[in-house]
Amino acid sequence: MSIFSRIREDIRAAKAGDPAARGGVSVLLVYSGLHAVWWHRLSHALWLRGMRFLPRAVSQLVRFFTGIEIHPGATIGRRLFIDHGMGVVIGETAVVGDDVLIYHGVTLGGTGHSRGKRHPTIGDRVVIGAGAKVLGDIELGHDSAVGSNAVVVRSAAPWTTLTGIPAQGRPRRGAPVAETPDLADFYVI
């Protein structure tokens, strides 16, 4: 897929995710969440080639201009939309799936100082509300939702809604009956 196709895809995702988006040119020029993702793609490519200083410098410069910090080592899927963005932090070993929507103030952070995988894995089509913290080497299943200001420290099955501190899970509204998680079998906190 060409870079221009990816940009068009990202603009369509932003317009789908934000009812205030008026047009493609506006989204292209003023949506800091998209700018942060686009710069992340460059810094991530450099990171994968073994460079360390330059990708980190790029990510810090982008953080200065957008208020969004995405570590160059993070793996980001297609059509990620960061709405309003300010204060979003995505850690080095985080993995974010396709069609994810993240609101301002979200942290996908690590716990402790151990090396290796220490940040969350976010499934496809997950929505993470403003101010939510998703911490540690945990996994949020596809089609899950995290409420605003929730603190998630345990993995969650697909089609789970997580709210509270620490977050408690329950089946997400609109889940297909066949995919509704049985939370008795999948402990979520």
UniProtKB/TrEMBL annotation:
Tell whether Protease is among the UniProt keywords.
no
Cross-referenced Pfam families, in alphabetical order?
Hexapep
Record's keyword terms, sorted:
Acyltransferase, Amino-acid biosynthesis, Cysteine biosynthesis, Transferase
From the UniProt record, list the reaction(s) this protein catalyses: L-serine + acetyl-CoA = O-acetyl-L-serine + CoA
- Judged by the first EC level, this protein's enzyme class is transferase
Instruction: Quote one Gene Ontology molecular function term.
Output: serine O-acetyltransferase activity
Enzyme Commission identifier(s): 2.3.1.30
PANTHER family on file: SERINE ACETYLTRANSFERASE
The family note in this entry says: Belongs to the transferase hexapeptide repeat family.
From the Swiss-Prot or TrEMBL record, give the protein name: Serine acetyltransferase
